């Protein structure tokens, strides 16, 4: 009985450890993305009463293990930023549709 237990342990333990190591490697290389913390996933904007309502990560695309591009919503604008291990660079920016509509609403009204 003890021999059977040790045999099963000798087979199962390396398999479980190997799967754990492969999972960690895949996450580190960017092949698998874990859900964001605090219940906010990329692309989901926080509620207006949330402390991070002014800042939202809208989308992230991994270009290589060390480089990513991200669309960040901030202050009525969408910012396209490049992120590497050594720097963060602003690539482009535009007003969001929600911020542009109120600004242009007074132009479309007929007198």
Textual characterization of the structure:
The chain is α+β, with helices and mostly antiparallel strands. A four-stranded antiparallel sheet has the order 1-2-3-4. A hairpin with a 2-residue loop joins strand 1 and strand 2. The protein folds into two domains: 1-32; 36-111, no CATH class. The model is unreliable at 37-41 and 103-111 (pLDDT under 50). The protein is 36% helix and 30% strand. The protein has two helices and four strands, in the order H-E-E-E-E-H.
Helical/strand content category = alpha+beta
Helix content: 25-40%
Structural shape: elongated
SSE string:
HEEEEH
Question: Which features characterize this protein?
Answer:
four-stranded antiparallel sheet, 36% helix, 2 domains, single chain, alpha+beta, 111 residues
In brief, what are we looking at here?
The protein is an alpha+beta fold and 111 residues long. Helix content is 36%, strand content 30%. The chain has helices at residues 2-29, 97-108, and strands spanning 55-64, 67-74, 77-83, 88-95.
Write the layout of secondary structure elements.
Layout: H1 2-29, E1 55-64, E2 67-74, E3 77-83, E4 88-95, H2 97-108
Antiparallel strand pairs: 1-2, 2-3, 3-4
